[in-house]
Fold each of these.
Amino acid sequence: MSNAQALREFKARTFQALAHPTRVAIVEALRDGELPAGTLLDMLGIEQANLSQHLAVLKAREVLVSRKVGNQVYYAVRDPALIEVMDLLRKYFYSHLNETLGLLGEMERTRKAPRR
């Protein structure tokens, strides 16, 4: 496999890991540093089993790392570069949202314009 193909595979696996809103919420919750699973549970308001499943996917795809201290498991984003990617995706979203709002505004102005 070429380096380019390996990179495409890596990107696809990473995006697959993030292809669920709850997993995106987990990564966003960890943007400022590691948190224990209990805190994530409280922040996200989901069932413990559901959180465990999503954490397992993110760990398996090496998006998150964990460490155990006593009976607490702490999770963190493996590489802060992923937070930058998430921030870029937010900018991308708002760029498209603004474009769509502009088009809708233009359609509304056209609809309200007097006909001759």
Note: The chain has a mean pLDDT of 92.
Amino acid sequence: MTEAAPIVFVVDDDPSVRRAIKRLLESVGLEVQSFGSAPEFLHGIPHAPSCLVLDIRLPGISGLDFQRQLAEANIHIPIIFITGHGDIPMSVRAMKAGAVEFFTKPFRDQDLLDAIHISIEQDRARRQREAEIATLRERFESLSAREREVIAMVVSGMLNKHIAAEIGTTENTVKVHRSRAREKMQAKSLADLVKMVERLKIPLKRAS
């Protein structure tokens, strides 16, 4: 499946700043959407690698408060702050909350472009990880209840004979469940299966 083209969102209440940044980004082939306030932006988040160039001082809500609201809403988008009235405590707060960069106007065009490319790559990697986890989750959900139980025990380090005793069956039956589960999960090896289960954070039955 072809990945959607990356997009950069610009939220700044100064139309001249929005136009200048839009021209800069479009000059290097980036798609841009600009907004004059934070609420406007919420209607345009795409399913594509993206980042947000966000002014600190906005009408209605500050950029820092909006950053917090996005995090609380589970909207994960790399943020690059720009401001004409920044200070060190403000920049520290933004960076601690996960901002990629914090620029004080005027800033170098190349510095902004570099930060945007880093942000888009971060978002692309995050989306890929989430897609992989969703695929693994779908495979895990295809397992029977017994297969899930056996795999949790296998991954925790229990031997087939101990698993058989635990669930009241034979070793051969455990081997069958284990083989089918590994096939459904498309795991190439036990080590591969262990990594998959760890990524899914499946609760394990610990060996005694």
Note: The two ends are 45 Å apart (CA to CA).
Amino acid sequence: MSDGRKGNDPRRDPGSDLSREVWTLMSELVLDHQRRREVSDAVGLSFSRTRALRRVADGPMSMGELAAALGIDRPNATVLVDDLEGQGLVRRRPHPTDRRAKMVEATPKGKKLAKRANDILGTPPAALGTLGGEDLEALRRVLTSIAPQR
């Protein structure tokens, strides 16, 4: 029960049992559908390489921006880009304003694979199809209220 103060409401406490249960259910819904394996099998790349490819397919990025977007160190980003470039999926080009930096962009072949991965990842689990419109609207409302802004 809430006493009216946001901080004392166990439903709003990220460490509460209810919050943990909801988070576990959400995680299982997303992670147990084995999308990573499905994507990797479909595009022939590890999921981490697919993730990098999907990022640069949205638009060219500097190596530093890519590393930050993936939450990895720059040397790791270099290894990923080297591999993707070797497969003809990305290319490096000079940065327009920084002579020391390189931009990474997806090739047409890379964009095609990224689209295939996005199509797989964008397909909702069958369980969502069992919900009615009212429940889906409620779920969207809740998730929109807690999701980071895009």
Note: Helices lie at 17-31, 35-43, 47-57, 63-70, 74-86, 108-122, 126-129, 133-146.
